[in-house]
Every structure is written in structure tokens, then in C-alpha cells.
């Protein structure tokens, strides 16, 4: 069994805090005479966790990239990672996996996208992106222990990751995230000074406050009682929505239909970390961080939800330690384009009928590719075709699949020269060979053993163990 340790970094730039974690991942290529070769991450070890910093801001709408860079360079030094190959220790060139994730309200700052590109050049060879709510919730659920707990108990576990600007919720069952959604609930949506004067009220709270016959304005001196009432209502609204006791909320970030009811709720994030502290009794105690985070934490605690095993670093642990997958070894790579980044995923169910029906699959493939061609920019590859609901595949079915995928891809993405296909099963090499025969003008990359149900974009890295390549599935979102 071939094994290899790789270094992974996770950096989370959130609404309230910024933190970094360095870990080691042990990649193993496991094979014997009775099984196909397969790669997986078999061990994870945290080697360094940074202090938790207040995210540096120039003002309410811009991140301070200069101070952020100084912070990052210092933490790399503390972790023994050198920016200069000549210095001792690990250099950035030796960091083979990880993620820099800009999350929450910070992802919506006007210079967030430029910072993403800056970090991409200075942070090492790994995923750098602003995180959409889905990815952020999934990473937090991994880091907090919710996914692991759901695998152990077979119960539906909800993880609410409450930060400065949003509460990202992931429902987990049998070790997988089955549902995600986000609410405008966070400690820094209301900011105030030690005397109780309100310095900021998020516009996302306007309708919610009005619906509850409450008002709160900048410049107003807020009473402890009013702040407590608002925080109590925010906590109750969040938990009631998670429990599907109400199907609509003015705080929901994007339209969402609830489908699962959790048997247990845990809270992570900066607000989750404060749940173990005593209830603040004065406005001065509430405003210790310049916001209402401590009071919001108390009201989550008072409605008897559980504090997650890992709270403040839940997101960054997910990014640094678990947002890296390794493809199976039965891959087909007929291209020299690797590494590739930010490829949108287009999921197409292979079989939804009782029996394989190539005409029905062709209809689904055509509709999916046509929609994708109108949404995504004309990059190459323009999208990755992800095949789900994959039954047993005969030789004839394999050839029909390849014919349909190739024809519809070429028809919808005129001018594209590279086709990426993702499979759940160990069939990538055979399917890749069949695709190569169908579309001789296309470069084919076909990968298996990829869990693509939890993300909207995929990064494909260089080979890390044999033919297998590192893969990161993620959601990108640059809001205007």
C-alpha cells in the first residue's frame, strides 16, 4: 500500500474573525489482488492552529488587504511555513492542498473578489474562493463534528454555524449533508459601543424587526431589554425554521423548501463558542466585542440547543482538513491541462426509470447542458458533467452513455476542447475510453469516486498518488 503525507492549510476570513489551521493528510493507494486500486485520506493531523483575529477592515465595505497580508505572513512563519524557499521549514511550494475561504458578510464586501485573486498568488497552490452559503455550512458541519455524529447515530443532525453575519445550517444524516440553507442571523448584524449607542444595524433585519413591532436605528441608545428581546427572537426564529415549525422567514437568504426535520441541533461558529459563558447582564457586557454576539449566544443556549464539539474553528477545520478528496484510481486523463480550477458542475441523473432508457437520459442531458451553456461563461472546460443515480452498467449501456454525453456536450458547448466527467462508481477509465472514441476532437478527463452532491464547482489538481488526483468540490459566490 503506497502512502504519502501532504500538507494542507485552511484559512477562514469571516465577518468577525480570521483564523488559520495547518494539517497533515495521509493519502493511501490501497490495492491487492482481489480489489481495484483506490485512494483515500486515511489520517488527518492538525499541526498548527492560529490565534483567532478580528478580520481587518478599512471600513464597512472594504477588507484591509495590507493588514490581512501581514497577518497571513506572520501566521505562516509561526506555523513553520516559509515564503522563501531558501529559509528552513516547509515552503509554500510544498503545500499541496487546502483552502482559503472568505465567508459570511465578508464575502459580499466590494473588494472580496480582488482579495481572492491576490491570495491565489500568495497563499500557495490550493483552493482560494469566496464561499457560498452551501459550502460554508458543509465545511462547518464537517469541522463541528455534526457529520460524524450523524454517521454514528443514524439520526438527522442539524448544525447551525452562527458567525458575524449569517447562520449557515447543514442537516446531516448517515455521514452526509442532505440539506443546506442560510439565515441572516449573526452577532455583528447589530453593532454598538460600550455605552449602548447603536453604530450599525444591518438592512437584512429591517423587515424582521418591523414584523415583530420593533425598531432599532443607528445613533439610538439601546436598552438591555430591547437588545435581549431582539436576540431572543432571532434565536427562536432560527431554531423554529430549522425544526420546520415555520416554512417562511424574512431572514432566509434565498428561497428554500424544508424537507427534513432534525432530531438534534448543535451550534458552532463564533456565537456558538460563547454559549458556555455566563449571560451578560448589562449593555457594557453585551458590547464587549462591539456587537450583540454574547447576548445572541445566551439566547441560543436558553432554548436548549447543544454547543458543537468544535465551535469557532469549525469552518476552517473543514476547509483545511476535509475539503480535499482524492479521485479513484480507475481514472482516464486524456489531457495535459491539469491543474484546473473553478469548473461548474452540471449534474445529470443516469437512470430515473426502472430500466435504462437512453432517450430519457438524452433528454435530461440536453436540458442540463443547454441550461448550463446559458449560465456559465465560455471557459474551457465550460462545465463538468456529473453522473448520479448510476446503476449497474453493461458494455452496451456504457457505449450509449458515451455517445449521448459527447453529442450533447459538443452541441451545447461549441468550441470547447475539453470534457470533464465525474462518476460515483469505479467506471471512469472505461467510460473515458468510450468518450475518447466518440469525440476525437475532445480532450477527456473522467474521474470516479467523487462526492459531487455538496458543491457547485470543482477544482482538479495534479496527481498525488499514482494516477489519482486531488479534488476539491466547492461553491463560489460573488454577490453584487
| Rg, alpha carbons | 24 Å
SSE class: alpha/beta
Name the shape in a single word: globular
Number of strands: 23
Q: Calculate the terminal CA-CA distance, rounded to whole Å.
A: 49 Å
List the helices and strands and how they pair.
Blueprint: E1 2-13, E2 17-32, E3 35-49, E4 53-54, H1 65-78, E5 81-82, E6 90-91, E7 95-102, H2 112-122, E8 127-130, H3 133-144, H4 146-153, E9 157-162, E10 167-173, E11 176-183, E12 190-192, E13 198-201, H5 206-211, H6 224-242, E14 264-268, H7 269-273, H8 283-286, H9 293-302, E15 306-307, H10 314-322, E16 325-326, E17 332-334, E18 340-349, H11 358-375, E19 384-388, H12 395-412, E20 418-423, H13 428-438, E21 443-447, E22 457-465, E23 468-474
Parallel strand pairs: 1-7, 5-6, 7-8, 9-14, 14-15, 18-19, 19-20, 20-21
Antiparallel strand pairs: 1-2, 2-3, 2-4, 9-10, 10-11, 12-13, 16-23, 17-21, 18-22, 22-23
Amino acid at each position: 500500500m503506497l502512502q504519502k503525507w501532504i500538507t494542507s492549510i485552511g484559512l477562514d476570513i469571516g465577518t468577525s474573525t480570521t483564523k488559520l489551521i495547518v494539517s497533515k493528510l495521509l493519502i493511501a493507494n490501497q490495492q491487492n489482488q482481489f480489489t481495484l486500486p483506490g485512494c483515500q485520506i486515511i489520517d488527518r493531523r492538525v499541526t498548527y492552529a492560529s490565534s483567532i483575529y478580528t478580520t481587518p477592515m478599512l471600513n464597512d465595505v472594504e477588507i484591509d488587504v495590507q493588514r490581512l497580508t501581514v497577518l497571513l505572513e506572520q501566521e505562516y512563519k509561526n506555523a513553520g511555513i516559509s515564503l522563501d524557499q531558501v529559509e528552513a521549514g516547509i515552503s509554500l511550494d510544498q503545500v499541496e492542498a487546502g483552502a482559503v475561504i472568505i465567508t459570511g458578510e465578508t464575502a459580499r464586501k466590494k473588494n472580496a473578489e480582488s482579495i481572492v485573486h491576490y491570495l491565489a498568488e500568495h497563499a500557495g497552490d490550493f483552493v482560494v474562493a469566496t464561499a457560498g452559503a452551501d459550502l460554508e455550512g458543509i465545511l462547518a458541519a464537517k469541522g463541528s463534528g455534526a457529520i460524524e455524529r450523524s454517521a454514528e447515530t443514524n439520526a438527522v443532525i442539524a448544525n447551525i454555524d452562527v458567525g458575524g453575519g449569517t447562520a449557515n445550517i447543514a442537516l446531516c444524516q448517515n455521514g452526509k449533508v442532505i440539506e443546506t440553507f442560510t439565515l441572516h442571523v449573526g452577532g455583528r448584524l447589530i453593532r454598538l459601543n460600550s455605552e449602548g449607542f447603536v453604530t450599525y444595524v444591518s438592512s437584512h433585519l429591517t423587515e424582521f424587526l418591523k414584523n415583530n413591532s420593533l425598531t432599532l436605528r443607528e445613533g439610538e441608545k439601546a436598552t438591555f431589554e430591547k437588545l435581549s428581546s431582539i436576540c431572543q427572537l432571532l434565536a427562536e426564529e432560527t431554531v423554529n425554521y430549522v425544526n420546520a415549525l415555520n416554512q417562511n422567514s424574512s431572514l432566509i437568504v434565498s428561497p428554500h423548501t424544508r424537507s427534513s426535520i432534525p432530531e438534534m441541533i448543535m451550534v458552532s461558529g463564533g456565537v456558538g463558542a460563547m454559549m458556555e459563558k455566563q449571560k451578560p447582564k448589562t449593555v457594557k457586557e453585551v458590547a464587549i466585542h462591539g456587537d450583540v454576539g454574547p447576548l445572541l449566544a445566551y439566547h441560543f443556549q436558553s432554548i436548549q440547543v447543544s454547543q458543537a464539539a468544535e465551535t469557532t474553528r469549525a469552518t476552517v477545520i473543514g476547509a483545511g482538513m476535509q475539503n480535499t478528496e482524492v479521485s479513484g484510481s480507475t481514472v482516464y486523463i486524456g489531457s495535459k491541462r491539469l491543474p484546473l480550477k473553478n469548473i461548474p458542475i452540471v449534474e445529470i441523473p443516469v437512470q430515473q426509470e426502472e430500466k435504462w432508457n437512453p432517450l430519457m437520459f438524452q433528454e435530461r442531458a440536453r436540458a442540463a447542458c443547454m441550461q448550463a451553456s446559458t449560465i456559465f461563461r465560455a471557459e474551457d472546460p465550460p462545465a463538468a458533467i456529473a453522473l448520479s443515480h448510476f446503476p449497474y452498467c453493461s458494455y452496451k449501456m456504457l457505449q450509449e452513455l458515451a455517445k449521448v454525453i459527447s453529442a450533447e456536450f459538443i452541441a451545447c458547448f461549441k468550441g470547447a476542447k475539453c470534457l470533464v466527467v465525474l462518476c460515483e462508481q469505479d467506471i471512469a477509465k472505461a467510460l473515458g475510453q468510450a468518450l475518447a472514441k466518440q469525440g476525437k476532437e475532445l480532450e477527456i478527463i473522467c474521474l470516479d469516486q467523487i462526492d459531487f452532491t455538496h458543491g457547485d464547482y470543482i477544482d482538479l489538481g495534479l496527481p498525488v498518488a499514482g494516477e489519482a488526483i486531488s479534488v476539491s468540490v466547492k461553491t463560489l459566490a460573488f454577490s453584487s
